[in-house]
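Re: [help] complex structure
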Amino acid sequence: MAGSGKAHLRDPESVLIRAEDLVVEFPISQGRVVNAVSGVSLDVKQGETLGLVGESGCGKSTTAKSLIQLPPPTSGTVSYLGTNLTSLDEKALRQARTDLQMIFQDPISSLNPRRKIGDVVAEPLRVWGPHNKDEQISQVDAMLEAVGIDPAIARDKRPHEFSGGQCQRISIARALVLNPQVIICDEPVSALDVSVQAQILNMLEDLKADYGLTLVFIAHDLAVVKNISDRIAVMYLGKLCEVSESNALYDAPAHPYTELLLGSSPVPDPTINLDITMVEEEDLPSPIDPPSGCRFRTRCKYATDRCAQEEPMMREVSQDHYVACHHPLVSVPEMAEVSA
Amino acid sequence: MTSARDEPLLAVRDLHTHFSINAGLLRAVDGVSFDLRAGQTLGIVGESGSGKTVLSRTIMRLNLGNNVHTSGQARFDGQDLLTLPMSEMTEIWGQEIAMVFQDPMTSLNPVVKIGRQVTEHVRKHFGVSKKEARTLAVELLKSVRIPEAEVTIGSYPHELSGGMRQRVSIAIALACSPKLLFADEPTTALDVTVQHQILNLLGIQQSERNMAMVLVTHDLGVVAGRTDEIIVMYAGKIVEQASTDQIFQKTSHPYTEALLRSIPKTDQPSHTRLAAIAGRPPNLITMPTGCAFSPRCPYAQDRCFEEEPPLQINQDGHAAACWYQVGTAENQEAWDKNLAAGRLSTMAVAKGQIVDEVPTDLTTGSS
Ligand SMILES: Nc1ncnc2c1ncn2[C@@H]1O[C@H](COP(=O)(O)OP(=O)(O)OP(=O)(O)O)[C@@H](O)[C@H]1O
Ligand SMILES: Nc1ncnc2c1ncn2[C@@H]1O[C@H](COP(=O)(O)OP(=O)(O)OP(=O)(O)O)[C@@H](O)[C@H]1O
Ligand code: SF4
Ligand SMILES: [Mg+2]
Ligand SMILES: [Mg+2]
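Output below.
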């Protein structure tokens, strides 16, 4: 995309979260702004895992944070179970956030180093949980067990006594302790070894089934995102490029940026011919001064004049597969263009 | 067999790096040997804590603290780096051998502008003028695809993103055209497109400069197609060493096999159950007797828990340290036996047949 539009959104009645036209701008010096998120619309169904993928700085974390209003978007709306979160007062919002939990990329530094694991996991319960201490403890123990950490051993230890994978399990336990509906996972496995990553991904799938969770899963690794997601949104420089059911995205990527991502993805197979000569020469565009038209055009090998002038809108290329591109890599059914 | 002509650029022999700590002696690197020829690329792969960084830092003579004990040899261009006086070693740093670290901030000075840092070595060793240095800095930053290089030379490291900082440290490493580059997880913090291009860039610079490279990573995807040879490390030791093709196509060590299986792949349908490796690497102070991988290995037999397998090299130059190497009849037998005996905790890694790994690190502690 680097385009806009909402053709990919589903019936509002059928989704748990629906975000429309999210814009997040960060003011910086000299009156300039970082256009971190520029008109992103997305929705997530109950029990679904939405993968959000794209390169560093494209606005994945900002989009995710604006879903839980931390901070609220500059403009746009987020509705959760029909309630517009952007219009809630601070108190109602905090209550709503108990349903929407977030876990962060860096497992070790996201945990308070001075606190014992038992307290770290119990923290959300202090405000929202049962007031009975014993009940709190048993809830914490249950969560630690659910993520495969022995509470008897872990309860009195501190974060630095655990490996990265264990810290990530602990932060997942903390996110789960209030029995949320939705967990937003911001690169939960990016800092982990492949072996530990596999354990955490499997565990997330199990927890999702056991607790009926809905996930928003952010990652820059396409194989990881495909493994865990039902539906994937590809993001570039503050906009969505492509939204698709997971398998279809990889079988037939429609956006040139998705193609670039797939071609760059490391594959553990030396017989696959790597394009080892490709090094883009031009400067990467910045969200301070994004390109006109399609934001991807400066790196796109298919770009034409139209791409500089006109912003592509999201349109359907096949069932549950949408792309925002003037020259998609798959043919687009004639009548499918739906502009929002 | 070795004539002077194919004398390796770097020859590491029986390298040990141990740390004395309160709990005892930590064997971070425990008997590692390898050769690296000019212009070649060696990949070093292994889980976190397997000793990859300590190995690189030992060879580079970078500070590892005063509780460190090192033995063995690391001959570079004929001289043993490990016994070289520090004054001569500092001459080699940057000029002959350069290093790109896992965390770019370790190689960047937070209070010096980027442009100055990039050309520091060049200015010191080649006495270029201020103007030349500026042009060179811009060129180097452009070569690692830093946008607005002219502006960035005036920035400080904290003003750049992690990815940008890593590109800067790569530019610094390349500035003096070293003969050997140690790249320790150079792209781990970067996204795939940038990683792909940085690795391409390193590859291109490498062949242009006939520079050898040691590429350290935990990601087997990164080294596939980009290295000539691969070393797989586990708990401070080499468990498998072969040409890149052999590592992938004739995987011999159960640990390498398990690592390969645990990687999600884009050609698998979504929600494919991953073959995670049960448990975690051993404690390097109280290592298990026998094979270090035995508590996690799906093929382990009694012998594996008692006797340490030596690194054995076959006629193809493929080396592995395992009593029941993957692809052999003995391996198949070991698997069948364990399957019959129901050793479920470790079987998740093998064959993709039984998928329920024991999910926890802590609860598998006493098996
Ligand atoms: N508080 C802030 N002030 C100014 N700019 C910001 C702020 N937070 C984020 N940005 C900018 O907004 C853009 C989007 O950042 P964001 O963190 O959402 O990206 P991301 O896709 O999560 O990247 P990564 O993969 O590196 O985590 C970036 O250009 C970033 O520098
Ligand atoms: N200065 C030190 N003193 C004591 N132990 C150390 C020291 N430096 C490293 N170690 C230990 O040596 C072992 C090997 O560490 P090393 O950093 O080489 O691992 P690695 O393979 O590079 O891991 P990663 O993938 O996490 O970078 C670890 O157990 C580590 O804790
Ligand atoms: S089969 Fe035995 S020797 Fe080989 S890796 Fe497994 S435990 Fe080690
Ligand atoms: Mg982010
Ligand atoms: Mg390391």
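The pocket of magnesium ion (ligand 5) is lined by residues B 52-53, 102, 184 (CB under 6 Å).
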